[in-house]
Amino acid sequence: MRLGATFFVRNDFPWLGHYFGSQKFASTLSPGIGGIVSWGGRVPAKTAAAIARFRRLPHWHLEDGFLRSVGLGKAGTIPLSIVIDDLGLPVDANTSSRLERLIEGAGEAGELGRAIREQIVLNRLSKYNHLPHRPPQVERTGKRRILLVDQVVGDVSVGRALGSQASFERMLADGLKSGAQCLIRTHPDVMAGLRKGYLTNDAAAKGGAVLIDDAVSVASILEVVDEVWTVSSQFGFDALLRGIPVRCYAAPFYAGWGVTQDHFGVYTKAALAGRRTKLRSVDQIAAAAFSLYPTYRDPADWREIAVFRAIELIVAQQRAAA
To answer: Do 135 and 272 reside in the same domain of the chain?
Structure first.
């Protein structure tokens, strides 16, 4: 099928056609296309969705997979995985995505998820895997440690997960009055002054929390905390994989299944009414998120691979760079 995409997708993701039979995408307005693809949830994606509706064409939402690569996408690193969703973005709690439906139906996939989880934890992996493994420089106290995960203002995953500035304010307030040692993981772009974080300035003004700006891996930070509180970051899912209790102040894809402590507002509860009704284990969610949902390809020859081969490639790249 010949597919259309916006100029943003055609220009910024030159490798993307390899996931669709090595084709070259046409314009969304081209005649003869059989469907339209979009990336993420910003203006170009909304434009693509509107054109698809107007032309009565199928529309597929694309995003990075949850186990992406060693380096960052903004640094030009080609991903090992993407997700292709005909229903919605995986971060969007307003509607049922294909991922949500796969989690609903993942009752028999626990063993697969356990094997994936064990390999990810053993190799200390996350979505991106370019940062070194070393303990963050944080003073140890006798209190339990809660990690509050900051996110960049404007992050699509916050609003789509039904979170807001108020969600971060409530999370910080709850943390500060909990009696625990509160650590805030700041985003690298925030520390560099390139973006604004939801938590960083507010926490600095109120005091009582420790900012972690060490350029260390997700695994390194999770090894020194007792709980993780988040609005919608994948950091929470990384924590679940490692058996760390997680509290959510919005509805990321892994919340609402009984494995997180959910502090949903009234609107979020209403939006999820009748959905995510089954109890799911971390392993069942892992099977859906890492195996059933994404497509993996080896950028060396673009052949399709399994998640376990993707893990091997990431580990090999890390060792080669060490």
So the answer is: yes
Judge whether residue 229 has pLDDT over 90: yes
Q: What range does the domain containing 220 cover?
A: 131-278
For 109-134, give one letter per residue: b (16+ CB within 10 A) or e.
Answer: bbebbbbbbebbeeebbbbbbebeee
Q: Hey, what are 254's tokens?
A: 């892994």
* Three-state DSSP string of 140-209: CCCCCEEEEECCECCCHHHHHCCCCHHHHHHHHHHHHCCCCEEEEECCHHHHCCCCCECCHHHHHHHCCE
Cα dihedral sign, 285-289-291-292:
positive
Distance, CA of 201 to CA of 173 (rounded, Å): 14
User: What is residue 200's predicted lDDT score, i.e. its pLDDT?
Assistant: 80
CA distance 303 to 192: 37
Please, which residues bridge with residue 223 across strands? none
In a domain, 49, yes or no: yes
In this prediction the pTM is: 0.95
* pLDDT given at position 96: 96
Q: What DSSP character marks residue 24?
A: P
Pairing mode, if any, of strands 35-39 and 3-5? parallel
- Residue 299 in 3-state DSSP? coil
What backbone torsions phi and psi does residue 147 show, to the nearest 5 degrees? Answer: -95, 120
Residues pairing with 185 in the sheet: 149, 212
Structure tokens at 50: 């509107």
Please write the tens of the pLDDT for every residue from 103-118. Answer: 999 999 999 999 999 9
The CATH number covering residue 182 comes to 3.40.50
Judge if 220 and 193 occupy the same domain: yes
